[in-house]
Amino acid sequence: MIFPCILSGGVGSRLWPLSRTDRPKQFLPLFGGESLFQKTCKRVNRPDFAAPIVIGSNAHRFLIGEQLNELGLEAQSILLEPVGRNTAPPALMTALIAAETDPNALILLLPSDHLIRKENLFLTAVHQAETAARAGKIVTFGIEPSEANTGYGYIKVASGSEPVRPVEAFVEKPDQDRADAFLKDGSYVWNAGIFLYAANTMIDAFKKHQPELYENIVAVMKTRHGDLDFTRLNQEAFEALDNISIDYAIMEKADNVVCAPVAPEWDDLGSWSAIWTVLDKDAQGNSGLGDARFLDSNNCLAYAERGLVSVIGLEDVMVIATTDSVLVAHKDKAQDVKTVVEQLKAEGRHEVDRHPRSYRPWGYTERINAGERFSVQSMMIKPGKRLSLQSHLHRTEHWVVVSGTLEITINGETRLLSENQSAYVPLGAQHTLHNPGKIPVRMIEVQSGTYLQEDDIRRHPETSQNP
Question: Nucleotidyl transferase domain location, by residue (predicted)?
Fold first, then answer.
């Protein structure tokens, strides 16, 4: 049995404006209605794998839960990181969790933002690497390069035909001349950031090569506590951990590292031009997601989150239109999207961080429009779910039910609203919403007042609300 650990942190800023801080690239449903996170979860949803350990950001907790629920899957644990601390802490945290059950348990550490088209080939490589991992080796999976790409780190692998071979060197992202030489040499593979190891092997590696970090992570893991379906860690203790990758912390120092070269049609999908390469295309090389049209255009990408995008007379151009932002760029400039994001972040623009749709334990909200003294959003409340009892000091609210049956409580008075019925919540009134039915409730909420931010919510004890 292999314990998969799925790393779901990261932002993917080069996929802006679709990828945001609160909805990064691994959760975007770009691939047949599924996200890369969901594809990663399905990849290890097999009898020879245990339920996954998911390590992700506190900000994405409800998104993680929602996407697992859509697949009908349940994680062994969803461990929430208060802040990002790269890949070394998760590698050890997972080993410590698995060792509680079996010190010899094998762990497969997987990023959640990779696309692997030949999954059976990849899984075969994993199983071929089991013997080495059980013998105390740390196995890294190297992708046989299809081009001289400068965007990846490289691994120099010993010559031979064995499925698992010694690592001779780790190499940082090269310039173009070195990448060309690596491809011609034939002994270099891309570093995919995927690892297989026994729990006690990784624990021993940290004790030897990162003793202080080991002690600090062990201390952090002692602060674990449950919160709904999630596991939380002490924020202050976690923030004090070194921000370091598993490559720097362990892989480049250990003498028991081996590599399993594999060619499973793997893509990191770190930019819109990379997305274009894996999508279906028309006869002119154009790819469209959503309602997109092309005329006299070649090798273009168009994405329409809502509404229509038309591309006329262009070549090698990307047009990405979301509900609040539009990106137009040449494919050769795909990497420069990150620069735009950094500029917007410095200006404090919310388009970098907040996606219009925000997931909650009870469903989601989606921003429609906002202006001075008003905000309009749609809401979906799942069957059986209830919002907390709350009130506001600076705003009133109007609710209109679009579909389903909604139970509302305002100042202790409870009643039902059906389709096309509405209710008004006065300033300061204690109120809550509940979906007592079997289908989702969809509704529109209009907020009006002098201050409309989320910190105007005052929550009240649940015992004070009607049953």
Answer: 5-284
Quick one: 362-464 is in which CATH superfamily? Jelly Rolls (2.60.120.10)
Answer yes or no: is pLDDT of 303 > 50: yes
Q: Is 159 helix (H, G, I), strand (E, B) or coil?
A: coil
DSSP 217-263: HHHHHTT-EEETTEEE--HHHHHTS----HIIIIITT-S-EEEEEE-
DSSP letter, residue 298 = B
| SS3 label, residue 160 | coil
Q: Reply yes or no: is the peptide bond before residue 29 cis, omega within 30 of 0.
A: no
Range(s) of the chain covered by CATH 2.60.120.10:
362-464
pLDDT bracket for residue 467 (50, 70, 90):
very low
Answer for the pair 331, 6: CB distance below 8 angstroms, yes or no: no
Residue 454: what pLDDT? 85
Write down how long the chain is.
467
Q: What pTM does this model have?
A: 0.85
Alpha-carbon distances of 73 from 52, 66, 441, rounded to whole Å: 9, 10, 24
Q: May I ask the CATH architecture of the domain 2-267?
A: Alpha-Beta Complex (3.90)
Contact criterion met (CB below 8 Å) for 95 and 103:
no
